[in-house]
Design brief:
By secondary structure, this protein is mainly α. It has 33 helices and 9 strands.
């Protein structure tokens, strides 16, 4: 059976009724204390997806069909913001909770001295800039209903209605539903679990609907994305991006990143409705994942529509028209509900957020200024005023969206309308970032900057959107007002040939930011501004509790009456009782503490906004002077605070020094750990090499029994040599380990250094003769006494001379050994005329297992040895009180210099005793 328009309307009304029941039930569960899941990170993340409106559901496919990958920028901007949540979103939430923020207008007015002018300007700007966005939702719902109507056979009730009438009916229905849905209580700061639950439910519905259509497109009517793109190419469409990442793409990316912070509905959900800051950790990855899934099928749906639907079909409606064209009525109904859900969620949250701003920052301040008698209305009258103003505001906001829809007519694609709103709300961004990070920003700077940016946005982007239906505006866009070409909205001051969106953003943000900075630098902050600037900039340093600028003198009874009027009797009574403030009796005359007045202001701000709360309190709170005794007391307290501050600074310096020492010790531990790993790795490598040789040769001897006797003897000799090499390696490793850990310490005593050197040379003569190497020794001089152990010192000399012999590849190899006394030291140099040591190894020549390589331009590669001899020699000399260095010597090869301190000469008395004893 074909899908009928009447059935779709019935399904839409039933869906709205389901949302209302879900919201009502969620509120009931929350009041009964059973709403923990409603305040979970999952529900919070899904509610943030109110960002994905009918623009995302329908318009992203239309954008992909018209402009290729431009639709991706709409998703990537919010992704960057949420992935980098630590820098902006975390600070917004901390300030929002601490300052009891109710809206983006309340946020900016609170930072800039609780200024009502800032609040009014932001409210007006938000209302005007969101108007095209609401019109976009009305256009999407109307267009989708018209698509269903055109598919219905025969006349229907909807087919007799034109677009304007249908849009008016939709707007009226949305207004009634939103009023019933979102104005059941007065407290703007109180979370709305029912609204958030309904928005989260709608997020699931639109995701399921879009994924269902996408899966059907790539698997039900095609053989996959490649088949879809091939058919689109065959139909004459370009599927490859011809000019990716141009200035318009970057502009859309920037706008979407700013919009996810500055849109009133996003601020409402992300900041006001947040119940715990840690929920941002989940949203930081879950919300980008949600947008990734919802964008996966955009290109396949777009190109499937271009390839299969008739020419002239509206790309914005491909999600709906593709199932209808294929007779998939159930899928088409799900797609319609998904698009309807996307539109209603935006309308509900945006209308609630804007109505709170209008009632708190326009209606209530006007009512307060029109009367000075605070006793005219009680609590019910006060609440009735707020509720009535919010309900009327919702109706007027939706009606203004309809008016924009009616006046602009067929103004263009859904994405075009949405970008107009994005460009409008981005005018909040400079003031918002300055509120977070620039203490010097002033109320005047923010006011002038936002006002100028808003005016330029209205002239360069908002007004031209009416050009299609109004000849006078079209003439202004083409020729400029009164023929002044420099004032053309889309070519301001002669800047032509630029995309209108890029052009508008350039001029509006340039002037907005420039005036914010310039005016802030030439104006001064009020005392309240200074306090709020510190509270916002240092929101993580201390709780954002506000500061009493002057000493407050106010009667407790008057303050209670005001609190009762705004908060209600029960809440006001609880606050006064908890603070121990008496309203009658002997203590009634006691001064109300300024901290309590600040706290009461914050509680009232959670209901009516910071600016209105400030105005109310200013009517009854007066500042007074200080007596001499009070001034002396404050001075004494100040000195005490300074003393405590100095003590804290001293302790902080000590902690800093301790922390630095711990860091250094930690760095040393890491270095030692790394050296240990390197040592083990090198040991295992050196041990594995001879073991592998022994195992391989043994397997040959076991497997091949008929080997010739000569070859068998050669293999046995190789096993013997590798075993000796392994034994020598293990001995040297154990020797080095024992030396480093002090397990083979000795008592240094005066010994004859020359005798140890001569002994080493004699031992090495046996190594030198088979290689025809000559060891030239300097003539033996007088006896030189050095502190040490003769065997260990001889071991050092043998290691160095043996290295010089085994590494020397010169045609006429020579090893030169010299010794002389220099001052209080005995210096021995052992050099050769070999190839020397490559430059890259000179710094690390004494490290364990360093296998030296011949110098460039010489024969050889890796030189023989285990790589432990020099390390062992260096360790021994350190224990002897000496050192070994690689220096430039008299011959062409390497030269090692051993320096040892001379042993002190014995005292005359000790020498006499020694002779007598002999």
């Amino acid at each position: 059976m074909m899908l009928s328009a009447d059935f779709v309307v019935l399904a839409s009304v039933s869906y709205v009724g389901l949302l209302f029941l879900l919201a009502w039930g969620s509120d009931v569960w929350a009041r009964q204390g059973r709403g923990a899941f409603l305040r979970s990170p999952l529900v919070y993340t899904l509610s943030i997806s109110v960002y994905c409106t009918s623009w995302t559901f329908y318009g992203a496919v239309g954008t992909a069909a018209r402009n290729g990958l431009e639709f991706m920028a709409i998703y990537m901007g919010p992704t960057l913001v949420f992935v980098g949540w630590w820098f902006v979103l975390r600070k917004l939430l901390r300030i929002g909770h601490g300052q009891r923020i109710t809206s983006i207008a309340d946020f900016l007015s609170s930072r800039y001295g609780k200024s009502s002018r800032i609040a009014v300007l932001v409210t007006v700007m938000a209302t005007v800039t969101i108007t095209p966005y609401i019109a976009l939702q009305l256009k999407a719902i109307t267009a989708s209903l018209q698509v269903i109507t055109q598919q219905t056979a025969g006349p229907t009730r909807l087919s007799a209605l034109d677009d304007a009438t249908l849009a008016l009916i939709v707007a009226a229905g949305m207004a009634v539903f939103t009023i019933l849905f979102g104005t059941r209580n007065v407290d703007a700061r109180e979370q709305h679990p029912g609204v958030v639950a309904a928005i989260a439910f709608e997020a699931v519905i639109k995701l399921l609907a879009l994924v269902a259509v996408g899966l059907w497109v790539i698997s039900g009517v095609s053989e996959g994305p490649s088949d879809i793109f091939a058919r689109a190419t065959a139909a004459g469409y370009e599927v490859h991006e011809t000019a990716p990442f141009g200035n318009r793409w970057i502009t859309v990316l920037f706008l979407s990143a700013a919009a996810v912070i500055c849109l009133p509905r996003q601020f409402q959900i992300t900041v006001v409705e947040n119940s715990h800051e840690d929920h941002l950790r989940t949203a930081a990855w879950a919300f980008p994942l949600y947008m990734l899934i919802i964008s996966l099928f955009t290109l396949p749906i777009a190109y499937q529509g271009l390839a299969t639907l008739p020419a002239g079909a509206n790309p914005d409606m491909f999600v709906l028209t593709l199932p209808l064209a294929a007779g998939q009525d159930g899928l088409a109904l799900l797609a319609f509900i998904g698009g309807f859900s996307s539109a209603t969620s935006m309308i509900i949250v945006a209308s609630i957020a804007l109505s709170i701003m209008v009632s708190n920052h326009i209606v209530l301040p006007l009512a307060l200024r029109l009367t000075d008698d605070l006793s005219e209305a009680g609590t019910r009258g006060f609440a009735r005023l707020l509720l009535m103003s919010r309900r009327v505001s919702i109706a007027l906001i939706l009606f203004s969206g309809f008016i924009y829809f009616w006046l602009t007519g067929e103004s263009g694609a859904l994405a075009t309308i949405g970008l107009i709103s994005f460009a409008g709300v981005v005018q909040f961004l400079p003031a918002l970032l300055a509120a977070l990070y620039w203490r010097r920003a002033t109320m005047a700077g923010a006011l002038w900057g936002m006002a100028a940016g808003f005016a330029l946005w209205a002239w360069t982007l908002f007004m031209p959107s009416f050009a299609g239906s109004h000849p006078r505006i079209a003439d202004w866009v083409a020729q400029g007002p009164w023929g002044i070409g420099l004032l053309r909205p889309e070519a301001l001051f002669g800047m032509s040939g630029v995309d209108p969106l890029v052009h508008a953003i350039f001029w509006s943000l340039l002037v907005n930011t420039g005036l914010l900075m310039l005016v802030s630098l030439v104006t001064r902050q009020s005392a309240t501004e200074q306090d709020q600037a510190e509270a916002f900039a240092d929101c993580f340093a201390a709780p954002a509790t506000g500061t009493a600028v002057v000493r407050a003198r106010v009667a407790a009874e008057d303050l209670f009456f005001l609190a009762e009027r705004v908060l209600g009797w029960s809440r006001a009574q609880a606050m006064f009782s908890q603070a121990g403030i008496a309203r009658a009796g002997a203590r009634a005359a006691d001064a109300v503490p300024p901290a309590f007045v600040s706290r009461l202001e914050r509680e009232m701000a959670g209901l009516i906004g910071a600016a209105s709360a400030h105005i109310l309190l200013s009517k009854i709170v007066e500042g007074d002077g200080l007596s001499l005794e009070e001034a002396i007391q404050i001075a004494g307290e100040t000195l005490q605070v300074i003393s405590h501050s100095n003590e804290l600074e001293r302790k902080s310096a000590e902690l800093h020094l301790t922390a630095r020492k711990l860091q250094e010790a930690n760095a040393k531990l890491h270095t030692l750990h790394r050296q240990k790993d390197d040592f083990l790795s090198q040991v295992s490598h050196e041990v594995r090499t001879p073991m592998t040789s022994i195992r391989s040769i043994s397997e040959i001897l076991m497997r091949e029994t008929d080997l010739p006797e000569g070859q068998r003897e050669r293999f046995v000799e190789l096993i013997h040599q590798e075993s000796l090499r392994l034994t020598r390696l293990l001995d040297e490793i154990l020797d080095l380990s024992a030396l480093e850990h002090g397990e083979r310490d000795w008592l240094n005593r005066p010994i004859d250094g020359g005798a140890a050197l001569a002994r080493a040379c004699d031992v090495c003569e046996a190594l030198a003769r088979p290689r025809n190497i000559h060891i030239h020794r300097a003539a033996k001089g007088p006896q030189v006494m050095v502190p040490g152990d003769p065997d260990r010192l001889a071991q050092v000399f043998i290691n160095i001379i043996a290295n010089a012999i085994s590494h020397n590849r010169a045609p006429d190899p020579v090893v030169l050994v010299t010794a002389e006394t220099k001052g209080d030291s005995w210096v021995v140099e052992i050099s050769d005329n070999g190839s020397g040591i490559a430059p890259e190894f000179r710094e690390a020549v004494f490290e364990k297992f360093l296998r030296l390589t011949a110098a460039p331009g010489t024969a050889g590669g890796s030189l023989p040895g285990l790589g432990l001899g020099l390390s062992i020699s260096s360790t021994i000399l350190q224990k002897l009180g000496g050192q070994i260095d690689l220096v430039d010597g008299p011959l062409s090869g390497a030269c090692f210099r051993i320096t040892l301190p001379l042993a002190p000469e014995p005292e005359p008395q000790e020498a006499a005793l020694s002779v007598a004893a002999s």
